[in-house]
Every structure is written in C-alpha cells, then in structure tokens.
Design brief:
Layout (H helix, E strand, L loop, with lengths): L35 E6 L3 E3 L3 E2 L1 E7 L9 E6 L20 E4 L4 E7 L9 E9 L7 E6 L9 E2 L5 E5 L1 E5 L7 E2 L5 E5 L5 E5 L3 E3 L4 E8 L11 E7 L9 E4 L6 E6 L5 E3 L1 E4 L5 E4 L3 E4 L5 E6 L13 H10 L5 E3 L9 H14 L6 E3 L1 E4 L9 E4 L28 H10 L6 E4 L17 E8 L2 E2 L1 H9 L5 E4 L24 E6 L4 H10 L2 E4 L8 E15 L11 E7 L3 E3 L5 E8 L4 E8 L2 E6 L10 E8 L9 E2 L2 E6 L3 E7 L8 E3 L4 E4 L2 E2 L3 E8 L6 E5 L4 E5 L8 E4 L6 E8 L7 E8 L6 E10 L4 E4 L2 E4 L1
Helix pairs in contact: 1-2
C-alpha cells in the first residue's frame, strides 16, 4: 500500500513560473505601501463547509478614502460560500460593516462585481464623510451576535483562500489590490464515505491496482481517516490482502500488483470492522485476450491561475493521486493564460506525463464568445505549441496577439493553414456554449462533450447529428474546484458531478489516448461514485464492409475490410445486415438502456419486465432553461399520496447538500432541487402498490396519477421551453439486483445517409453513460 502526497510527482519539484497568474488590469498609480493594510481574525485552518465568523479590518493608508471612494472585498468565481447579507441577523453570513470615525457607508454584494477570477464582490462605499490615515472599516462576516450561525465556508479545500481586497482611495474608480492579502486554509472534514476504484477491463495475468480514499461530507478526499477495511472478493485475486488501512495523514491507499489468472467479472467490496459495507469498487472485467483495454480520464478543468482553485501543480497531482485518473488535461480559459503560465503548463505536462502510469496532455480551452462559436477544447501531442487565443481580454502582454483566432471558424482555418493535423478538439458547453451549427471542422473537432459539472447537454450531440457530423461522445468535469476526476458541485448552482471518459486503447500513453480520441473509441459517463461502468458496444457486419477510422468525406482515408466494428468506427456497408452486440457491467443496478440511431430513439430495454414490478415508484425530472449560463431549472415541490402511505423515500442526484428530500408526513414528501440539463428525482416505496393517487406539484409541472396506472412505461409530463423540461413517473421492482446486461439487436439501416448507432445507459443511482456511435452507411 502506498500513499503519495498531493503535489509530489516522481521527479523533483518544478519551480513556479513568474507571472503565471493572469493579472488584473489596473490604472491606479498610488504606491502599494500608501494604500493601507488589511487584517483578518481568526486565521489558520478551517474545515470546508463549516460555519465561521471572521473580522476583516481595513486600515486606511496615506490618502485615507475620500467621499465616494470605496473598497472591494472579492472572492473567486468558483467559491460556493454563503453570500454576505445584511437584512437577517439570524440568517447565514449576516455581515456587519462599520467605520471607526462613524462615516456613513453604503454596501451591497454583487456576484459579478469585479474582474475575473475575483468575481464575487462585497462593495463598500463611503457616501457621507471620509477616512483619514489610520481610520478603519471593520467587516464582520458571519456576525453571530444576533443569532446567525456564521459564514458557511466554501465546500472544497484550498490552501490559500483569499479575502482579496482592493481600494479606490481617491474616488476615481481605479481599484488597486492591497500589497498583502489575508488568507486562510480550508481543509477536509471527517470521513463520511469511502470510494474504491479498479480498472474496468484488463487481460488475464495483467497486474492492476485497487485504489481507495475516504471523502468528507462534501466529497473532499480527507486525511482524517483512521480505519481498517476488510476486503471481500467474489474471485480469487492474487496479491489481495485481507485488509486495507487508511491512516491519519493519508489521503489515499493503493494496493499494487493484483492479478487474476482466469476470465471473469471481479466484484470487490470493502467492509468496516463491524461488518457493514463501506464501499464497493466498480466492476472489473478480466478477459482472455483483447486488443484494447480501458483507461479513465477527465481532460477538462482549470486551476487558480485562470478561474479555478488551487495551483496547476496541485491540479495534476489531485487527478493522479486522489481521483485515481489515468489521464488528464488542463484547460484554462485562453484569454486568461499568460505566456509564462503557458510555458509552466507545458513544463507540468512534461513532468507529470509518465507512459504506463499517468498521462498529462497539453492544451487549453479556446473560450470564444458564443456569437463567435463558443467554447472548444484543444489538445496537443507535445509541448511547445502555439496558443491561439480567442482574445487577449485578461492578458496585458499583446506581443503575440497576431496568433489570436477570434472565431471558431478562424481557429479551425489557422490549424488547417499550419497543417496542425495532430490537434484534437471537443465542442463544449460551459458558460459559453459551442455553436457547432455555426462552426465545426471534423478534421480537428472529433467529439461533443455531453456532460460536465455545468450539466448534461444531449442537445449538443443532437445538433451534430442534425448537421450530419460524425463525432464521438465524451464527458469531463470542467471543474473549477481543484478536483479533476472527482468534481462535486458542493452548494453552488452547479447542479452536477463532473463527468468521466473511458478510453479504449492498446496502452496508456499520450500518443495512444490521442489516437483513441481521433478514432472516437470511447464512452462518456456522468461520473460520481457509480461513474465507471464497463460497456462494450460492437456490430457484427453481415456484408462486404469497409471500416474507416478517419472520415472519408473529409479527405483521403485508408479503409480496410471488416466483419466487426466498435464504438467510433465508420463503416460503409453496401448490403447485408447488422447485428448490434451490447455488454454492460455497472456499479449500480441498471434502470434501462436506450438504443438510438442518431436522432431516432429505437428502443428502451430493461433488465426486468412488468412481472417484476413492485411497490417502488420513480419520479424523475430533467431539463435546462437555456443553452447559456443561466440554465438552472428549479424543481422545488411536493408529492402527496391519498388513500396510501409512504414506506420509504430515497433521493436521486441531490448533489447539492443544501437541496433535500424530506418526508413531511406519512403521506407527503417535500423537496428542494434543481437541474442543469441533467436528471434528478426520487424513489418512493408505498404501502399499497396499486392503491390511491399520487399528486405532484413543482413550479413547472403539476400532475396526478392513480397508482394503478403507473407501470413499466414512462408517464411523461412535458413543459418544454427553449430546451426540453419534463417530469416522468414509472414503476420499478421493489429491489432490482440487475447490474449486468447483455443483448443483441438486428439493426435495420436507412438506405441513404448515416446510421449513428449508440446507446445510453441509465443506472438506478442516477448515473448516465453514452457510447460514441458506430457510423454505418450504405
């Protein structure tokens, strides 16, 4: 068993590059020593998500603060701490502000009140009077004197959480940051759950590792665990000890050198000393032989040098040592990446990239405005490549502005003009969504990102199908909280866990992962504890088929005769039938598998039938308000049973801990919930399986159903807006043990055009997975 400390790669430490953090443009010219000073009490270490009280004191410098001058106390965009409020003394983060000389102050909170990444801003203006040198403004965050529980800290860890303070002493609206900023350290809390990770596909005799971590209430890996876990396996695993220990000070434990001699499906449980289940690892399929095996990655996230949290070094180390990823990439907003930081990212990728162990891929997020094409992810096979920014919005050095590509079309054209055919890109939906109908180039843009921390975006894949593009499907986190591969939403309006992509490759290397991306040999999941299922999708081809890895419509492409294709392949089949073969092993019970031919939904398959249904009713809501930033749909509501009673209820995808499902009475549930394109809901076990009526009320949907009418098929209540928003109700088995599913289907191909055949898997725990399509055409 080994534990690697965060930020300690195999090689010597990399010195930080000067000027890595994009600076905030300032016009002020007051010497820093004359701006004044700021102190914070208490300081030190504080548990993520805990309630605290802090007193921040600004002491005016040489110029004081003139009438109508002001302060800004700013926090990072990613922070999900409670907002300062001034009206409710008993509410969270009640904040009081006073001037030592009784000057009258005016203040408010604005979540977009300053230059990114310091968006979240408490603005304090002197409106009557002024401050002289030595006068103070005292801000008490989480003032408990009148009953407030305090300020709830952000729910994720950060070594240097900063109360970033700027001052405009001359009332010119030119803000300058104080030379010394107050910081605290936010650390993980006590362990609440355990996570165990195995690979998903290996060959007989190949060695593999079991990796385990403990997480606190908010999903932070914690070093405050002291537990001995018993290991229970359904198959004889060479090298597997009886127990594993997570010791205080260790964020993770790893058991290396495990192997299985015979084919099978490994299911491994971790039990606490009292025999209760602590965790179950994802299934591991062992096969006699396979050209390709599985590796897992999250290739999309940011660090504090742009708009995220924690340093870029910590970002890569977290992905490897705490999230247990095989591959990652850093995707900072291009308009915030300075040239020194670009060089630092290259150096970090080179340092962390270790073939056979961990892959770090150089790249960035091209962050163009929506009207110019929207966000794209760009990946390179090597360091030292040109950063083609969408703009220099937050980069003061304009010496390389000639290489900017302001629109997505310009970006693709520049890559083509410079023959950068080894570049791989995704289309992405974050704050800015990719408009692939406006711009797309299949020579570079190989996939659509269907899911991230921002939500689920099946419409992005559907846009590609409408346009006839041939693309794969990926999911990543676009994490801003410094947790690539384990990116939980915390208490913010981010409504989803960050996604993962499973890469089907011959080996773990940068070249192999990029080759996999070009061939679209991968599938995507919504991540989380159940987010690493084994999925195999292939097609047996009944005629004289020609298989391509590159789209022959886009240029010369070498085809080969084939009798079988896997996810991502292009296949020309002039005649003959196609038999689809699907094999799934999930970490949680399987609710359903949906089979698609592009935009056409062909069939829903379940591992159970109508005869297996019981007293469990599932209510699911799904949707987004809008394609852009403000996409949250509020589903706060209630469910009431008449002539029946609630036996039990369990939430689905209530990721934000301040969103809850509560049993109000024997007949009523109430909840607070949101979606951002993803799904949420609950299971309800009732005393009488078919008696009485279920009435549901939400802001969008109000409906009522006799329980006798709720069966296997969905009852859908649609309230579509710009994007689909709906609620559906159906019945499940009282308990569903089915975590594996295999089936075959004959696929009738359309006589003309593409047949993008793919599946979407829904697990009972709310995890979704999508395979890249097999593109079949006559």
């Amino acid at each position: 068993m080994t534990d690697q400390p965060l930020g300690s790669p195999d090689d010597a430490a990399l010195p930080p590059a000067a000027g890595g953090l994009a600076s905030t443009p300032q016009r002020g010219a007051i010497p820093a020593r004359e701006l004044g000073s700021v102190t914070l009490t208490p300081d030190g270490d504080f548990v993520a998500g805990s309630h605290q009280t802090f007193t921040l004191v600004y002491t005016a410098g040489k110029f004081g603060i003139d009438d109508s001058g002001s302060l800004r106390i700013c926090f990072r965009f990613a922070s999900d701490q409670t907002r300062p409020q001034f009206e409710n003394p008993q509410g969270p983060n009640y904040t009081t502000i006073v001037a030592s000389n009784s000057a009258v102050l005016q203040y408010h909170y604005d979540p977009k009140g300053n230059v990114r990444p310091w968006d979240r801003t408490l603005y304090i203006k002197v409106v009557r009077g002024f401050l002289r040198e030595g006068d103070t403004i005292t801000v008490t965050f989480g003032d408990r004197s009148r009953g407030s529980p305090g300020m709830r800290l952000q729910t994720f860890c950060e070594d240097s959480f900063e109360f970033h303070t700027l001052v405009d002493p001359i009332a010119t609206y030119c803000y300058q940051p104080l030379p010394e900023q107050p910081t605290i350290r936010i650390v993980p809390g006590a362990p609440e759950s355990f996570v165990a990770v195995l690979p998903t596909l290996r060959r007989c005799g190949e060695t593999f590792a079991l990796k385990v971590r403990a997480e606190d209430l908010w999903g932070n890996p914690t070093d405050k665990c002291d537990a001995v876990l018993r290991l229970e396996s359904n198959l004889p695993v060479a090298g597997l000890p009886e127990t594993l220990r997570l010791a205080p000070g260790a964020f993770a434990a790893t058991i290396e050198g495990l192997s299985l001699a015979e084919p099978g499906e490994l299911r491994l449980r971790l039990l606490q000393e009292d025999g209760t289940a602590a965790a179950e690892a994802n299934p591991l399929r062992i096969v006699e032989g396979s050209a390709l095996v599985h590796f897992w990655g999250d290739l999309h996230g940011q660090s504090e040098e742009t708009i995220g949290t924690g340093s870029a070094r910590q970002y890569f180390a977290f992905a490897r040592d705490r999230a247990f990823l095989d591959a990652t990439g850093h995707q900072g907003n291009d308009f915030q990446i300075t040239t020194p930081f670009w060089r630092e990212l290259d150096a970090l990728c080179a340092e962390f990239d270790r073939p056979g162990s961990f892959v770090a891929i150089p790249g960035y997020e091209w962050s163009g405005n929506t009207g110019l094409g929207g966000d794209r992810n760009i990946y390179f096979p090597e360091e030292g490549r040109i950063l083609r920014r969408s703009s220099h919005a937050l980069v003061e050095d304009r010496s390389d502005i000639a290489s900017d590509a302001n629109s997505a079309a310009e970006l693709f054209q520049a890559l083509a003009d410079n023959k950068e055919w080894d570049v791989v890109g995704y289309a992405h939906c974050g704050g800015r969504y990719a408009d692939v109908k406006m711009a797309h180039d299949g020579r570079f843009e190989k996939s659509m990102e269907v899911h991230s921390s921002w939500g689920t975006f099946e419409w992005l894949v559907q846009d590609a199908f409408e346009m006839g593009y041939r693309v794969g499907i990926v999911a990543n986190s676009d994490g801003h909280k410094g947790r690539p591969g384990a990116s939980y939403p915390g208490a913010s309006l981010f409504g989803a866990v960050g996604g993962l992509t499973c890469f089907l490759t011959e080996e773990l290397s940068r070249a192999a992962i990029l080759d996999c991306l070009r061939k679209r040999h991968h599938y995507a999941t919504t991540g989380g504890h159940g987010g690493r299922p084994f999925i195999d999708l292939r097609a047996s081809l009944g005629g004289a088929a020609t298989l391509y890895h590159d789209d022959p419509r886009l240029g010369p492409s070498e085809g080969r005769p084939a009798s079988e294709a896997i996810m991502g392949d292009f296949v020309q089949l002039p005649e003959g039938e196609v038999e689809l073969q699907v094999d799934i092993a999930a970490a949680a019970p399987i609710e359903r598998v949906d089979l698609f031919n592009g935009l056409e939904h062909l069939e829903t398959l379940r591992p159970y039938g109508a005869e297996d249904l019981g007293n469990r009713i599932r209510v699911v809501w799904e949707g987004a308000e809008y394609r852009g930033r403000f996409r949250q749909v509020i589903w706060d509501g209630s469910a009431h049973l008449s002539d029946n009673s609630v036996v039990a209820a369990r939430p689905i995808n209530f990721f934000n801990r301040d969103k809850t499902l509560d049993q109000v009475s024997e007949t009523e549930l109430a909840w607070r919930a949101l979606t951002t394109g993803n799904i949420g809901g609950f299971d309800l076990w009732v005393a009488d399986p078919y008696g009485g009526t279920l009435k549901i009320e939400t802001p969008l949907v109000k409906c009522g159903l006799p329980l006798e009418e709720i069966g296997l098929e969905d009852e859908i209540f649609d309230e579509s807006g710009v994007l689909p928003r709906y609620l559906k109700v159906f019945r499940l088995p009282t308990a569903n043990p089915q975590r594996t599913m295999t089936f075959t289907r004959r696929i009738a191909l359309r006589p003309e055009g593409d047949n993008p055949i793919f599946i979407r898997v829904t697990q009972e725990d709310g995890t979704l997975a999508w395979t890249s399509p097999i593109y079949l055409y006559r």
